[in-house]
Write a structure and sequence with these properties.
Elements: H1 2-10, H2 16-29, H3 32-43, E1 47-48, H4 49-55, H5 60-72, E2 76-81, E3 84-89, H6 91-104
Antiparallel strand pairs: 1-3, 2-3
Length: 105
């Protein structure tokens, strides 16, 4: 554990803005429901809110709140298709997150 703390303390490769971006993404994915939503969107890109609600045991309003957090963190985007919004992961941002994790750890 001390080795990890030392490595994190030594890591100066991220700018302040990059660290803020990384932490926001990490926090967003740290919630079990949001993590499951991301897994679902990975399997079913372009899914809409109703699809996600049908998959999870939570209300539509709660799904919408979680989607908002994921969007604000830059992990998910939504496109209007008629009356529905279709959601998918933002590949380049997920890739950036994965690369940053590898860089840090």
């Amino acid at each position: 554990m001390n080795e990890l703390k030392e490595k994190l303390a030594e890591n100066k490769t991220l700018s302040r803005l990059e660290r803020e971006r990384f932490i926001a993404m990490f926090k967003a994915m740290g919630n079990p429901i949001r993590y499951e939503m991301m897994e679902y969107m990975l399997k079913f890109p372009g899914c809409n809110t109703t699809n996600i609600v049908d998959h999870l045991p939570i209300a539509q309003a709660t799904v919408s709140q979680h989607l908002k957090v994921l969007k604000e963190a830059g992990l998910v985007s939504g496109e209007f298709e008629g009356p529905a919004t279709c959601y998918c992961l933002i590949d380049e941002n997920v890739k950036w997150f994965k690369e940053t994790v590898q860089k840090i750890f």
